[in-house]
């Protein structure tokens, strides 16, 4: 494989196709010619099948049309052997949904040119596949971005027509470690670092600046890492949704930090409305109830749901309201980021655990 463009859907490969056919006009009796069993001839001197790549992205052409001086080998039985090599550029249908754990299955569809006009007569009887002369995995160079898996070729129907061609499937799996450690892990760390915004005392005055700094870090990081993510919307990678969600998540934390700081510095004489009172009472009640097992909190504290009564024993202030908001939001955002992380990796693992070494192709299976 030379190159694979998952955005344009083009794969460039270098390959050798071994073609053999029978021509009774080229047979001879070896005893009449000093026991000669093999003979080399120029392609211009014999008939040969005109082979073309059907799913090419370039100009449709016959590969051996300009190779008249190439040599083929003929046996005394009239069997002709010829190797056709070159660089093939074929179209492919990429799917980057699970980037960077995406797997792509492309194929090269070779058809005899004459079958295009006589497909109803020959059908698939004119094409037979043989065992490869060598294992392609033993000769291809390692690629830093893609892991290559050769698969079993097959004779495949072209669309709904009577035309058949030889399909050579190629399965490509992206090497995921670079993107995982340079994009996904830093984004995850920034997301969990956002939760520490609520541990900074409001009176310190650094909470809002810390939240804004993290939000800007996400923005800069998305710009830098955008080059590592395929620029496509059909389909759009899950990682793109993941980054957008992280940006919205960080923006919500920044907005909540500003709101809490504003509430914390409210004038003491400013009246606290009943929704704030009930919310503060509920959060403190839940927090105290969770400490009951330790014996440090009286169990009766959660039995009183009347905010007016609680106000008499312990007046509700704007500071208490802001602290209640801190506890509630850090719990909420912790659950959000944990759920989002689990769901995201569950989708990625769904792709990563696919059987990449299956020797049979779904392209051949669909034929």
TrEMBL record:
Q: Which InterPro entries match?
A: Neur_chan_lig-bd (IPR006202), Neur_chan_lig-bd_sf (IPR036734), Neur_channel (IPR006201), Neuro-gated_channel_TM_sf (IPR036719), Neuro_actylchol_rec (IPR038050), Neurotrans-gated_channel_TM (IPR006029)
Q: Where are the transmembrane segments?
A: 178-201, 207-226, 238-264, 328-349
- Bilayer disposition of the protein: Multi-pass membrane protein
Q: Which UniProt keywords apply?
A: Membrane, Transmembrane, Transmembrane helix
Name the Gene Ontology molecular function terms of this record.
Answer: extracellular ligand-gated monoatomic ion channel activity; transmembrane signaling receptor activity
The GO cellular component terms are: membrane
Q: Where is the Neurotransmitter-gated ion-channel ligand-binding domain?
A: 3-113
Stated name of the protein: Uncharacterized protein
Keyword Protein biosynthesis recorded: no
Q: Which domain of life is it from?
A: Eukaryota
Q: Where in the cell is it found?
A: Membrane
Q: Which residues form the Neurotransmitter-gated ion-channel transmembrane domain?
A: 183-278
Q: Which organism is it from?
A: Pinctada imbricata
């Amino acid at each position: 494989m030379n190159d694979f463009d998952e955005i344009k859907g083009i794969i460039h490969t270098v390959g050798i196709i071994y073609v053999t056919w029978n021509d009774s006009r080229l047979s001879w009796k070896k005893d009449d010619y000093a026991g000669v069993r093999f003979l080399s001839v120029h392609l211009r001197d014999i008939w040969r099948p005109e082979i073309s790549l059907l799913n090419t992205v370039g100009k449709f052409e016959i590969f051996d049309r300009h190779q008249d001086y190439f040599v083929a080998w003929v046996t005394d039985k009239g069997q002709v052997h010829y190797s056709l090599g070159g660089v093939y550029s074929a179209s492919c249908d990429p799917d980057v949904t699970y980037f960077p754990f995406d797997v792509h299955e492309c194929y090269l569809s070779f058809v005899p040119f004459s079958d295009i006009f006589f497909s109803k007569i020959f059908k698939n009887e004119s094409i037979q596949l043989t065992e490869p002369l060598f294992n392609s995995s033993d000769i291809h160079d390692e690629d830093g971005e893609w892991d290559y898996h050769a698969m079993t070729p097959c004779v495949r129907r072209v669309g709904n027509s009577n035309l058949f061609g030889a399909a050579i499937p190629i399965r490509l799996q992206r090497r995921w470690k670079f993107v995982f450690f340079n994009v996904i892990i830093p984004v995850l760390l920034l997301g969990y670092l956002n939760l520490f915004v609520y541990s900074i005392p409001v009176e310190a005055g650094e909470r809002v600046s810390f939240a804004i700094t993290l939000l800007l870090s996400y923005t800069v990081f998305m710009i830098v890492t955008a080059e590592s993510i395929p620029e496509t919307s059909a389909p759009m990678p899950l990682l793109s949704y993941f980054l957008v969600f992280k940006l919205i998540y960080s923006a919500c934390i920044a907005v909540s930090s500003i709101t809490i700081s504003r509430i914390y510095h409210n004038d003491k004489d400013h009246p606290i409305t009943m929704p704030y009172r009930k919310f503060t009472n509920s959060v403190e009640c839940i927090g105290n109830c969770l400490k009951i097992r330790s014996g440090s909190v009286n169990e009766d504290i959660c039995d009183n749901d009347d905010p007016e009564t609680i106000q008499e024993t312990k007046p509700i202030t704007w500071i208490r309201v802001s602290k209640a908001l801190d506890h509630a939001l850090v719990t909420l955002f912790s659950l959000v980021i944990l759920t989002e992380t689990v769901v995201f990796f569950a989708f990625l693992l769904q792709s990563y655990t696919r059987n990449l070494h299956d020797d049979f192709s779904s392209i051949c299976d669909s034929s």
